[in-house]
Write a structure and sequence with these properties.
With 123 residues, this protein is an alpha+beta fold. It has one domain. It contains six helices and three strands; from the N terminus they run ααβααααββ. A three-stranded antiparallel β-sheet has the order 1-2-3. The longest helix is centred in the N-terminal third of the chain and has 13 residues. The chain is globular.
Length: 123
Amino acid sequence: MKSLGLSVGLLLAVSPSAAFAQSIESYVARLSAADHFNSNGERLTSVAAIIRQDRANLYVYGKGDPEDETDSFFSDKGNRAKLENMLNRGMASKASRQAILNGTPMIRVEVHPDFINVEVYRD
């Protein structure tokens, strides 16, 4: 029992808001080569920018990838503008970030009210 209390206490001390946060939704998307460039043809150099471009390609330009799932949160332009700050408050492993920056993986995005968690779903 003492061990359980200590574990819960450590979890709350590390991340009190994330410990009990409920996700709004989640989706899977392929980050294709097209998602690595903005509408001016410039290479994107941040994970958040690539994910945001993926959502813009799907919702604004109608050019999603066959594996892209829709979501209700980032279908809104204002919410897409929040993506970078949401990722900064969330989690994405170093390996996931490298795979996104240097490849075309499928990712899973878990959307919470004020943060997102991103993981590589499959290469």
